[in-house]
Design brief:
0% strand, globular, mainly alpha, 136 residues
């Protein structure tokens, strides 16, 4: 077992995804193409948010000098709600991508949201199932 808790594992993997998203986003922005720039923008924003979510609880506990108490029942509920929201993000991204708003420059933003939302839907579902398999 590489991690001391499932929360640590989730935070680590989400931080890696967030950092990789930001690096990928910066790379996409280097293309001189508005479609790629839009995807890059979404990757940078989502990566920043994911990274903050990953490190936020640890920083909070460190500042408050709180002991880490794992609450898998609460985490399972959060992950299930997030997985449902992630599916909503994919749907919204698809609506933007297909040009529902008839503004072609948003297509790249739509694809960026689809990719990020789809990853998070799989990520959150995987960890919810992992917690459920532990009996919580």
């Amino acid at each position: 077992m590489l991690f001391k808790s499932i929360e640590t594992e989730i935070s680590f993997n989400l931080l890696i995804w967030g950092l990789c998203s930001m690096v990928g986003g910066i790379t996409f922005i280097l293309f001189e193409n508005s479609f790629m720039n839009a995807i890059g923008f979404q990757f940078i924003i989502w990566g920043l948010i994911d990274s903050l979510i990953a490190i936020g609880p640890g920083i909070y506990r460190w500042i408050r000098n709180h002991e880490h108490i794992e609450n898998l029942k609460k985490l399972k509920k959060i992950l299930i709600v997030n997985a449902i929201l992630d599916i909503g993000y994919v749907i919204i991204g698809f609506i933007i991508f297909i040009g529902f708003f008839e503004i072609n420059q948003y297509n790249g933003h739509g694809l960026g949201v689809i990719i990020q939302g789809a990853f998070l839907a799989v990520f959150d579902t995987y960890y919810a199932i992992k917690i459920i398999s532990k009996g919580f």
